[in-house]
Amino acid sequence: MALRRFFGFSDGELMRSDSKPCSRLMRHTAGIFTVGGALLFWTFCKTHY
Hints:
It is built from 3 helices and no strands. The protein is mostly helical and 49 residues long. The protein has a domain at 22-49.
């Protein structure tokens, strides 16, 4: 959610039914990077502390 605002997208803009495939791909990519970043951060914290 914060990442979407960081990229300049609002939730309404991304959730439109007539959204183009490129914005849909952008949403999937942002979701993958969010999950991947959270997993990396969690593993880093587990190994570091």
